[in-house]
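User:
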Amino acid sequence: MPASKPKTKNQDIPKSTRPPLYIPLSERPTLNVDEFCGMIGIGRSSFYKAVAAGDVVPCRYGKRVFITQDEMNRFVRNMPSNRSRPR
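Assistant: Predicted structure:
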């Protein structure tokens, strides 16, 4: 029987029982699309309409789409209020 390789710390704990790495959203530099939509209160289709209109400028890394905290704050500041809509 061949000798087994020595285990490293991460191999000692099964992946399913490792505590997840959690960083509060307020401390993260970027949000993914679902996090952004949840924080703003819009759906994914509304998000992509805002991107197409140039209201939100996402960052891309490969196929991943991210929104910076600064971009989210800019989007919220520029959202129209209900009072400015004509009736």
